[in-house]
Amino acid sequence: MNMTSTFRPGTAAEPTSEVELTLSCRGLQCKDLLSKSDPMCVTYIQPFGESSWVEFHRTEVIHNTHDPDFASKVQISYRFEERQSLKFEVYDIDSPNQSLEEHDFLGVATCSLGQIISSGKVHVPLSQRGLGARGDQQGHMIIIAEELVALKDEVIMQFSGTKLDKKKFIFWKSDPFLVFHKSLESGDYAVVHKTEVVKNTLNPTWQKFSIPVRTLCNGDYDRSIKVVCYDWNSSGDHSHIGEFFVTLRQLAEGPLGSNVFQCVHPEKQKKNSSYTHSGLISLDFFEIRQIRSFMDYIKGGTQLHCSIAIDFTGSNGNPTSPQSLHYISTAPNAYEQAIQAVGGIIQDYDSDKLFPVLGFGARLPPDGRVSHEFFVNMNPTNPYCSGITGIVQPTAYILKLWNFKLIEELFGIC
Fold this sequence. Notes:
single chain; alpha+beta; Immunoglobulin-like; four-stranded antiparallel β-sheet; 8 helices; 22 strands; 15% helix; elongated; disordered C terminus
């Protein structure tokens, strides 16, 4: 029996997914004499068909630790049909300088995104450059992958603490901060947010913070969220005050009620049957806000409007010279290329495609008076040009209006 196929080539969806990578390191080298390292991880990708590496992401810097759990995630598109090579370099950051050459190199690890996806969680040894996998003494990286749901909402929260345990000496109170972890399908917990440290208090109020819902729980309102309270120490060995577990669904009920949590230290609870908790943590503010994408705004009727100003001063050079930005030839000059590149994109989002175009720094005919604001289309009452060609044509017309000798005399201000 003959059947007519309804399949049309090119209509299948691309096999891509948005993936979030959680990065951690263990056993990093110590590069500082009097303290632990301050690590940061830089992720590089290798574009398809190329051999060079391109920087893709940098984590935050975590101070005084050789076992960092980075809160900053690597979000990347996973393509099944490609081998997506990844490289992770870890540095000890000693200054605000953005140049990596100014910081101590701690190790490098390479793998493919496919390896991470297939395992869900990989341990990759760090090595010095060029030593391959022989750098076990450099420590290792832990990389966990999770597919992200297409969710744009973000949650805004604020917490406070009451009567937290005192971890300092007699004359000092604790310096508490909160660390939020989301549970992964592998059963692990990954750090997703850290509050600021509130110094010398047992009753802190932390600032409001926002976090994407898909980062906090991947859009699953019933997924467990682990919140740990620490007492900050300058050595990097922060003291554990206590912890609690909650879901986004429970937090969405708002402040008070069930959202006052006992901050429990698991070890104290095991050792002391009369132990109850190490203080209370309360939710003081909660809001879920939908984040609009660029496409949402465009679909909602947003129009983009572009105004263009063109520099006609003598700093551009003589228009008869190939070195001039206003060079007159059959090929587009630098100004025309820029106008076409930018305007060609924006005009698709402008319903009337009318662009006001102004010039400055020219001596205008017929008397050669200097003007720092004139309409390029030479219409004294209407600056609008229709479409990209309507911008380029009058600009070229001004340049070609006079012969080259007259241009040299009238055009531009030195």
